[in-house]
């Protein structure tokens, strides 16, 4: 019978946030919560022929880089800050190494690619950066964070949220077993929406997985603090976004990504005054709008086609960008872009799974001079870059940001140019 635990020596760190070890048969084991150089007691969560996944049940020999977790919720077992148990400098090294590894192994971009990017911090501290979060509400009405792979909730605070984001949430009368979405706008106002409990929630690991997929379905919403729309200001524009709609989690992320898009668009070859821009997976249009604000070397924009599925984000874009040459297209990028006028520049900021080969083939077929591609999952980002490169694009620059401090996640942005 396969053992449930094993003592393992961790030799590396992989994208996805786990230590890499090998079991007695030489099989790779990804061990969550373990650092390179450590000897740990690993408890298996998933066993496959070619690899296994486990988590650290006990650290037997600790790395000198291990610290007491900076995040109280993570220390209590929550899945929020999965890299909170090492210092900022070593965490940055681990993230940069994992990104470089994935770009080489999955991206296979060859010698034409620039040196892998360093992972740049967005602020001086790895705590107090998050302007929106989602919490689970326990049976006793107390909000907290779920322990990974379990329906258990811990009420210790996460270190990520900006000051005040979590204050007094337990006093708002949230319904037991629901969820709370909490967001603070650039005006400092906090807004809280309650999502109704998931029918048939249940307990235990299986129940946690079932309820995770049920929780992603649309649920009844009730505003319990603030207003239904959050004010977000960036550059010369102000957006009013639904509390449950998308906005970058790190308070410095919108301005940093906007500046990067502007910088890349200013340096890409072959762009002309009056250029047409596709802002794909555009949300409320902050990245396309960054080019409308002028400045730098960016040629004047003739038109922006914003493609997005979320009607709330499009309504926010409509109100914020009325005076600008922005055309809104509601629908799936894969279906919509075939009917759009050809672009000079494409900005693509897909969700975690990436844009995928079909969308990238359609972008390439439309013949843009340049693409600014954004990714929040290193593996999907590398796959997407490989698809552009296989269609003749060259990666001419890229940046990576520590946009989710105390976690393994990175946000990366690449400039790709056609020959
Ligand atoms: C990572 S967010 C980026 C939003 C925006 N660029 C920003 O920075 O605020 C991805 C966006 O893509 C939208 N989306 C997801 N799948 C989509 C699809 N297949 N077609 C169009 N939009 C999609 C989501 O609603 C979300 O607003």
UniProtKB/TrEMBL annotation:
Database matches in PROSITE patterns: SAM_MT_RNA_M5U, TRAM
SUPFAM superfamilies: Nucleic acid-binding proteins, S-adenosyl-L-methionine-dependent methyltransferases
Keywords: Methyltransferase, S-adenosyl-L-methionine, Transferase
Gene3D superfamilies, per database record: Nucleic acid-binding proteins, Vaccinia Virus protein VP39
Pfam families, A to Z: TRAM (PF01938)
KW ATP-binding (keyword) present: no
Keyword 4Fe-4S attached: no
Segments for region (Disordered): 197-220
Residue numbers annotated as active site: 376 (nucleophile)
Residues holding S-adenosyl-L-methionine: 248, 281, 305, 349
Domain TRAM: 1-58
InterPro entries: NA-bd_OB-fold, SAM-dependent_MTases_sf, TRAM_dom, U5_MeTrfase_fam
Family the UniProt entry places it in: Belongs to the class I-like SAM-binding methyltransferase superfamily. RNA M5U methyltransferase family.
Cross-referenced PANTHER family: RNA M5U METHYLTRANSFERASE (PTHR11061), TRNA (URACIL(54)-C(5))-METHYLTRANSFERASE (PTHR11061:SF30)
Protein name: TRAM domain-containing protein
Protein source organism: Gordonia caeni
